[in-house]
From TrEMBL:
GO molecular function terms attached to this record: hydrolase activity; metal ion binding; nuclease activity
GO cellular component terms, A-Z: nucleus
Family to which this protein belongs: Belongs to the HARBI1 family.
Alphabetic keyword roster: Hydrolase, Metal-binding, Nuclease, Nucleus
Subcellular localization: Nucleus
Source organism (scientific name): Parnassius mnemosyne (clouded apollo)
Organism superkingdom: Eukaryota
Protein name per UniProt: DDE Tnp4 domain-containing protein
Main location per the UniProt record: nucleus
Length: 268
């Protein structure tokens, strides 16, 4: 096509493509958390082969995608870094594939709250006779199925070595965000999606679908430069340490201690 494309045409095409990629059957096909033991075992094995950490089915974190000021419920989207955003929760596997995404919460919502409301949490809690971990930072509450760092661990102690490995594996989610935003730069926090929150959320989901298509097809995407990574870090909202109920926290500590002991035995 010769000459520039009219803005109305671009907007119509964007809406049509975004709507198509948000169709339920498309989302189910391309963004899918493992639903049975065999699927989980495949992901666990890949994490173990790469990093030596057993039973991991994913890494989880949230990332803020900037939007223009909404006309309604503006306070839900105004985050602690003083800009409006969608707080997007993503779970990924060791290949940087996105297995779950939630782009329905405003930037004022804490990461831990989004996870508490997530259907994947209920799914993992309902598993019987199977050891399964997600890896999260200290913004998430320690649970039997959510492994977080040990606070104030001494370097080169069993807990310190666990923290080092946990963080190394957890960097997978940071790399996933880097590739996702490097390929679809409208998601960078230094930019803004000029759409209402609902449409912005659909654009985020569409980008995640396309991201997975590219990963599965072996199409390499440009990761962010160090300068862009630094810009992202300064725009992201720092996590707040999650509160935790005593009984659930104790169960999480027992699970984490068992994992640390296993890792120590494997060192010998």
């Amino acid at each position: 096509m010769d000459g520039p494309m009219a803005q109305q045409t671009v907007s119509r095409c964007l809406q049509e493509v975004t709507t198509a990629l948000n169709a339920p059957h498309i989302l189910r096909k391309h963004i899918r958390f493992p639903q049975n033991r065999n699927e989980r075992n495949l992901i666990k094995q890949k994490f173990y082969d790469k990093y030596g950490l057993p039973a991991v089915v994913g890494c989880i974190d949230c990332s803020h995608v900037a939007i223009v000021r909404p006309s309604e419920h503006e306070e839900r989207y105004f985050n602690r870094k003083h800009f409006h955003s969608i707080n997007t929760q993503v779970i990924c596997d060791s290949d940087l594939l996105i297995t779950n995404v939630d782009a329905s919460y405003g930037g004022a919502t804490h990461d831990a709250y989004i996870w508490r409301e997530c259907e994947i949490r209920n799914h993992l809690e309902g598993l019987q006779d199977e050891t399964v971990y997600l890896l999260g930072d200290s913004g998430y509450a320690l649970r039997e199925h959510m492994m977080t760092p040990v606070d104030n661990a001494v370097e080169n102690s069993p807990e310190g070595r666990y923290n080092y490995l946990q963080k190394r594996v957890r960097c997978t989610i940071e790399r996933t965000f880097g590739v996702l935003k490097g390929r679809w730069r409208c998601l960078l926090a230094a930019r803004e999606l000029h759409y209402c929150p609902e449409t912005a959320g659909k654009i985020i989901l569409a980008c995640c679908v396309l991201h997975n298509m590219c990963i599965r097809a072996g199409i390499e995407g440009p990761e962010l430069t160090e300068e862009e990574h630094q810009s992202e870090r300064t725009r992201q909202v720092p996590f707040e340490t999650a509160a935790s109920s005593t009984q659930a926290l104790q169960a999480g500590r027992r699970a984490r201690n068992s994992l640390i002991q296993m890792l120590e035995r494997n060192r010998r």
